[in-house]
Fold this sequence. Notes:
By secondary structure, this protein is mainly alpha-helical. About 70% of the residues lie in helices and about 0% in strands. The protein is flat, with a radius of gyration of 20 Å.
Amino acid sequence: MVGLLVVAAAAVAARFRPVARVRAAATALVALYAGEIVVGLANVWWLAPVPFQILHLLFADLIWIALVLLCLAALGVELVARPAPQTRAREGGM
């Protein structure tokens, strides 16, 4: 159920903000969700071995990261690191 909302959010964002960053983020989000479905099915098929459980959790984390990046891209937020402003020490010190 939640997965369908994630895919729908990606589709809506890509439709209403048809720029390359949003389309790339939406595609990555849908691909990660599809991968999580495959890993989840493998979990069920092989009775949830620990490496597949960890992989499934990794995909869940990556989906959240991709969703946040999609939201930032859809809102037009630039992810640019800027140096912190330099502060001058007061003369006379503290």
